């Protein structure tokens, strides 16, 4: 059974967290400490809770995360499965789903709180860090596309009222495009809050596989998903392409 760190459980009993941050991980030992360290001041000053959901890592991800998180859960692999499990164990009335390679902007918790006073859900703009000179353009395109379509991606730090997340059934438990499908469900309830503050996310997939190759691959997958191709088939194509 998962257990909360004893010191935090006492503080939560006195003051429930404003925000539960759910972070799915899989073999992120190289970067999980850098991802969790900036959240530590927020855990006791806001307060927030940090929930790490491991999908069966074969490295030291869990060991590194345990002293830096309020709750570490084990889950079958699959980002949607992991995030849904984290949401089930969350204590706050607001949820933030944060990828393990993504850093929040300053005053993120305050911005989320203000945004959820007017919207049921939202996301941040994104800035990609990495070697490729194309990454600023990729980030700009992602932000513009999201504003035009009202569709958010998981890289942008999606935040949602917990009651709304439950009402739409959480993330669809599919192996790819779960963020797009959740956005489509949420759009039926309200438009998203599109915050101009930027999360900084790793551009490693663009660096590793080539910027234009990755851009074309993602566009092709999105187009085929829009045309009705199953997420399972697209996940296989994505793995094969990589």
From TrEMBL:
Domain Glycosyltransferase 2-like per the UniProt entry, residue ranges: 20-126
Domain of life according to the entry: Bacteria
Leader sequence residues: none
Pfam annotation, one family: Glycos_transf_2
Acyltransferase as UniProt keyword: no
Molecular function terms, GO-annotated: transferase activity
Protein's name in the database: Glycosyl transferase
Classification via InterPro entries: Glyco_trans_2-like, Nucleotide-diphossugar_trans, Trfase_2_rSAM/seldom_assoc
Localization of this protein: Cell membrane
Record carries keyword Transferase: yes
UniProt keyword annotations, A-Z: Cell membrane, Glycosyltransferase, Membrane, Transferase
Organism annotation: Vreelandella boliviensis LC1
PANTHER family per UniProt: GLYCOSYLTRANSFERASE (PTHR43646), GLYCOSYLTRANSFERASE 2-LIKE DOMAIN-CONTAINING PROTEIN (PTHR43646:SF2)
């Amino acid at each position: 059974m998962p257990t909360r760190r004893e010191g935090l459980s006492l503080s939560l009993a006195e003051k429930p967290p404003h925000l539960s941050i759910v972070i799915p991980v899989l073999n992120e030992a190289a970067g999980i400490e850098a991802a969790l360290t900036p959240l530590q001041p927020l855990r006791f000053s806001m307060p927030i809770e940090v929930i790490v959901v491991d999908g069966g890592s074969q490295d030291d991800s869990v060991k590194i995360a345990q002293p830096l998180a309020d709750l570490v859960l084990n889950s079958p692999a699959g980002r949607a499965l992991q995030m849904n499990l984290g949401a089930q164990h969350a204590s706050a009335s607001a949820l933030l789903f944060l990828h393990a390679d993504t850093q929040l902007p300053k005053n993120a918790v305050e911005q989320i709180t203000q945004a959820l006073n007017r919207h049921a859900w939202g996301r941040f703009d994104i800035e990609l860090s990495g070697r490729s000179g194309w990454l600023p353009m990729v980030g700009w395109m992602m932000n513009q596309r999201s504003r035009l379509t009202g569709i958010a991606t998981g890289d942008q730090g999606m935040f949602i009222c917990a009651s709304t997340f439950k009402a739409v059934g959480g993330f669809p438990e599919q192996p790819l495009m779960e963020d797009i499908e959740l956005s489509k469900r949420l759009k039926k309830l309200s438009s998203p809050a599109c915050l101009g503050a930027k999360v900084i996310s790793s551009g490693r997939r663009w660096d590793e596989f080539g910027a234009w190759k990755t851009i074309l691959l993602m566009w092709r997958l999105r187009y085929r998903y829009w045309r009705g191709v199953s997420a399972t088939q697209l996940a296989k194509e994505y793995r094969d392409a990589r």
